[in-house]
What does this fold into?
Amino acid sequence: MTPYRVLVSDPVSEKGIEALRQADGIEVDVQTGLAPDKLLEIIGQYHGLVVRSQTKVTPEVFAAAENLRVIGRAGVGVDNIDRAAATDHGVVVMNTPGGNTVSTAEHAFSLMLSLARRIPQAHASMTAGKFDRKSFTGVELSGKRLAVLGMGRIGTEFAKRAQAFGMRIVAYDPFLTDARAKSLKVELAETPAQALTGADVVTLHVPLTDDTRHILDRERIGLMNPGAIIVNCARGGLVDEAAARELYDSGHLGGIALDVYETEPPAEDFPLRGLDRVVLTPHLGASTAEAQESVGIEVARQVRDFLLTGEIRNAVNMPNLDSSTLESVGRYLDLAESLGKLLSKIAPAQRDAVRVSYLGPVAELDTELITRSVLKGYLAEAHQAASVNLVNVHALAQSHGLRITESTVALKTNCNELLEVSAIKGDEVYTVAGTFFGRSARLVHIAGHHVETNTKGRFLFVENDDRPGIVGTIGTALGDASVNIANMALSRAEDRSRAVAVIEVDAEPPASLLKQLRETPGIVRVISFEL
It folds into this structure.
């Protein structure tokens, strides 16, 4: 049998490379620092590619990679890999989401300590030949209120270390349940503002999404105690750097430590450079020997197993499916994921459980993969979407204390087949549902309202008092903002107290339009989402 050839184009631990070399049927070439044109020239020879963050795997690379079957990313992020192009070319992309958890948590904690005790500044002073004991007075962490935004793997590890230092911890995570918070011995906040109010230290461990961009803006930083400090080892863009500088200059912000930036590397006019109570590192969260060895070995084993046996682990663009299973449940997976995404948008934060219910022919199938697809869509808002896949969704749900159940459909329906998904918080239940009309998937129920609309696209969900004129007001506002309506579905409650409009639009509505609609008398709720 002709051996599979694997190219390692970024520095990966030697133990990982050795795991590939020892496998029968695999040949390994290590060529790091390749220029883009050189990569294009040679990539056609290889069946597997192992990268970190340096190699950019563009559509042009995929077009030239006629034999490529798998890419392994040693690390979590896959921003350097065009996943759409990978899928189009039938290339499986796998990452290693758990390998750098401890390293990143420890780096964030080290930044907090360095900032609190002003260690880098004192070191620089000593290096300059001084012995200045008066200029570097720090603060104790014991007894301070720590706000952790994001209680996934890394946030949880940070919180454990902070507890050992005697800090009082409040956590915000939209998917963290009361039971899970109690088991972690942290106070649960229902909103970021609640967590930040009165905080002495804030650490960020959330993905960068439309909802979390500038989660620390001028207003929210202002909620923190005077002299409070910020640590960000998660993603650039979570902190409004210009606002942080203003509040630093005003004396409200006591300091900030960053490992990630809105633009990397930061521009020359980066507003936080050169300040006295600022600690900056060049994206070093995962840069430990242990983390690099761990992700190197893990990605090598994943690539090896895929090429030799077809096994898929931690894929970011393909479910773990064999051909027979895909044939029976494949058409339900996109519908299930869209329902999960929609539910995460319309249901309140910190749900206790997700219930997936089936009616008709779908109930006779093995529904495990369909339920997993619901969770994949539902949990994408809580994590980097690339790190959520059909393999790890149950583990991620468990880490948030989220119960998953399956049952028969509760809605009254005329449909012969129905996929119903509900989020449960105490006695409150929020439900969305979809079905098929022929081969076409359709949404047919959203939060107590029977509607019919597409399962893919950009949408506005508007809930309002059921009275004349509101639909016209919505349409006029959209037109004035040059947002074209592709489709509109209307529904009203049986008692005619409330009505909803589900509007499919051609472009993302501007924030000013959403603000205008939310402030319109009679409009109760406005949600913008993409499926």
Q: What stands out?
A: The chain has four domains: 4-99+290-309, 101-280, 319-428, 457-531. Residues 37 and 61 are 9 Å apart (CA to CA). The mean pLDDT is 90. The longest strand covers residues 428-437.
